[in-house]
Amino acid sequence: MAIYHLQDIDSTLSGDLKVGSNGDIELAASPETISNAVNFWLRTDHADYPAASNVGANLGEFIGQPLSKSLLAEVEESTRSSLTENIVAPEDLELHAVPFTHEEILISIRVGGDYLDEDGEVLQTEKQTFNYIFPYIDSTVYPA
């Protein structure tokens, strides 16, 4: 398992920034930063984020294709390689793409790893599970 030490602006699963009671934008701890990054990455297609045209899993490219075993394998491989090249170590990622309806795919992701807190202590956390349904993009995070 990798040890992650990241901090970024905190956001909700729908991408809205979290603002504290004092009006300041909140910062996420390392586990939430990874969760937010995975969520943002999967909801973003190339060129959706003007600051960098290669950001995102680019899952929109699969919308409109007939659902098949080969498509599921492509979605799974594309998502896995995108996340492991940009956000998490391969050993910290479990990913499965399965049919949800005749025209939707469920992508289930479990992300693990250890995290450093503000004091430099290693935190061992439970894996987080993300479930996404494409082409309608919805996400719910459940602690595993």
Explain this structure:
The structure is a single chain. With 144 residues, the protein is of the alpha+beta class. The protein is 22% helix and 28% strand. The chain has 2 helices and 9 strands; from the N terminus they run βββααββββββ. The chain has helices spanning 30-42, 69-86, and strands spanning 3-4, 8-9, 27-28, 93-101, 104-111, 114-116, 122-124, 128-134, 139-143. A 4-stranded antiparallel sheet has the order 4-5-8-9, with helices on one face. The protein starts with a strand and ends with a strand.
List its traits:
three-stranded mixed beta sheet; 144 residues; Nuclear Transport Factor 2, Chain: A; four-stranded antiparallel beta sheet; globular; alpha+beta
